[in-house]
């Protein structure tokens, strides 16, 4: 399948070498509601299709040698959406990651991690996500981070609350606080910084997603709505990444 996609894209396979895979890809899964509206369907239909794409997307990323993939499914700001839509997202999240479906994550060596608040979602969502974490804990293939009730602002608030508490309890000195320590207290502490951040749906903003982790990420925006985002689209994003010059602030002499 991959070679067929290459032929259709006319990609130079020597330049896009999967012997040098991406380490960490993050995707903002945007456009579900607009996709459904175009088809005269309710927005919830789009969210359902979006959730159903997650597993196949992770499997394809794993085939490309990607070690970590983080998917933005529900933000801390999404609670402001209509109650019917939010309720559906909670119900379907608990369904798609439930006992019935978790075996395929285990069998395909996918390590599942939930990043985000755990105190505000319904108990059924919390149970489903935490049970899948426990069930796949020993997997060492690709790591899937599901960002659910996640926001960078809230994440950083939690980090500094913890560090200030450690200061008050004399477990830490002011001079001990540096970037490495901050990073080690993020939700993504087990994951390297983002190499490639993809946003589907046509919008060109980060929407409070992995702001610190994406400081030097290459950004890729596509008008394709998430339910229509296929392997071909993923490879186009990878091709774009491979053709970029990542200098990290440096300039060669």
From TrEMBL:
<feature type="binding site">
    <location>
        <position position="81"/>
    </location>
    <ligand>
        <name>substrate</name>
    </ligand>
</feature>
<feature type="binding site">
    <location>
        <begin position="75"/>
        <end position="77"/>
    </location>
    <ligand>
        <name>substrate</name>
    </ligand>
</feature>
<keyword id="KW-0479">Metal-binding</keyword>
<comment type="similarity">
    <text>Belongs to the UPP synthase family.</text>
</comment>
<feature type="binding site">
    <location>
        <position position="218"/>
    </location>
    <ligand>
        <name>Mg(2+)</name>
    </ligand>
</feature>
<feature type="active site">
    <location>
        <position position="30"/>
    </location>
</feature>
<feature type="active site" description="Proton acceptor">
    <location>
        <position position="78"/>
    </location>
</feature>
<feature type="binding site">
    <location>
        <position position="199"/>
    </location>
    <ligand>
        <name>substrate</name>
    </ligand>
</feature>
<feature type="binding site">
    <location>
        <begin position="205"/>
        <end position="207"/>
    </location>
    <ligand>
        <name>substrate</name>
    </ligand>
</feature>
<comment type="function">
    <text>Catalyzes the condensation of isopentenyl diphosphate (IPP) with allylic pyrophosphates generating different type of terpenoids.</text>
</comment>
<protein>
    <recommendedName>
        <fullName>Isoprenyl transferase</fullName>
        <ecNumber>2.5.1.-</ecNumber>
    </recommendedName>
</protein>
<keyword id="KW-0808">Transferase</keyword>
<dbReference type="InterPro" id="IPR036424">
    <property type="entry name" value="UPP_synth-like_sf"/>
</dbReference>
<dbReference type="Pfam" id="PF01255">
    <property type="entry name" value="Prenyltransf"/>
</dbReference>
<feature type="binding site">
    <location>
        <position position="30"/>
    </location>
    <ligand>
        <name>Mg(2+)</name>
    </ligand>
</feature>
<dbReference type="GO" id="GO:0045547">
    <property type="term" value="F:ditrans,polycis-polyprenyl diphosphate synthase [(2E,6E)-farnesyl diphosphate specific] activity"/>
</dbReference>
<dbReference type="InterPro" id="IPR001441">
    <property type="entry name" value="UPP_synth-like"/>
</dbReference>
<feature type="binding site">
    <location>
        <position position="43"/>
    </location>
    <ligand>
        <name>substrate</name>
    </ligand>
</feature>
<dbReference type="InterPro" id="IPR018520">
    <property type="entry name" value="UPP_synth-like_CS"/>
</dbReference>
<comment type="subunit">
    <text>Homodimer.</text>
</comment>
<keyword id="KW-0460">Magnesium</keyword>
<dbReference type="GO" id="GO:0000287">
    <property type="term" value="F:magnesium ion binding"/>
</dbReference>
<feature type="binding site">
    <location>
        <position position="79"/>
    </location>
    <ligand>
        <name>substrate</name>
    </ligand>
</feature>
<dbReference type="GO" id="GO:0016094">
    <property type="term" value="P:polyprenol biosynthetic process"/>
</dbReference>
<feature type="binding site">
    <location>
        <position position="35"/>
    </location>
    <ligand>
        <name>substrate</name>
    </ligand>
</feature>
<feature type="binding site">
    <location>
        <position position="47"/>
    </location>
    <ligand>
        <name>substrate</name>
    </ligand>
</feature>
<feature type="binding site">
    <location>
        <begin position="31"/>
        <end position="34"/>
    </location>
    <ligand>
        <name>substrate</name>
    </ligand>
</feature>
């Amino acid at each position: 399948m991959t070679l067929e996609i290459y032929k259709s894209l006319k990609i130079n396979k020597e330049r896009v070498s999967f012997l040098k895979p991406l380490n960490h890809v993050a995707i903002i899964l945007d456009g579900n509601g607009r996709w459904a509206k175009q088809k005269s369907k309710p927005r919830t239909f789009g969210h359902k299709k979006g959730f159903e794409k997650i597993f196949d997307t992770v499997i394809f990323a794993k085939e490309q040698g990607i070690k970590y993939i983080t998917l933005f499914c529900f933000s801390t700001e999404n609670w402001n959406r209509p109650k019917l839509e939010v309720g559906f997202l909670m119900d379907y999240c608990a369904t798609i990651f439930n006992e019935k479906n978790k075996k395929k994550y285990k069998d395909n060596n996918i390590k599942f991690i939930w990043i985000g608040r755990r105190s505000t979602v319904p108990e059924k969502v919390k149970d489903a996500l935490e049970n899948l974490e426990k069930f796949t804990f020993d997997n060492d293939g690709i790591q899937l981070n599901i960002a659910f009730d996640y926001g960078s602002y809230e994440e950083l608030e939690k980090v500094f609350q913890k560090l200030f508490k450690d200061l008050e309890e004399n477990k830490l000195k002011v001079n001990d606080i540096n970037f490495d320590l901050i990073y080690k207290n993020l939700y993504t502490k087990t994951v390297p910084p983002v190499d490639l951040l993809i946003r589907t749906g046509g919008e060109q903003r980060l929407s409070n997603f992995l702001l610190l982790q994406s400081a030097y990420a290459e950004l890729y925006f596509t008008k394709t709505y998430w339910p229509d985002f296929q392997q071909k689209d993923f490879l186009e994003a990878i091709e774009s990444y491979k053709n970029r010059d990542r200098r990290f602030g440096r300039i060669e002499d």
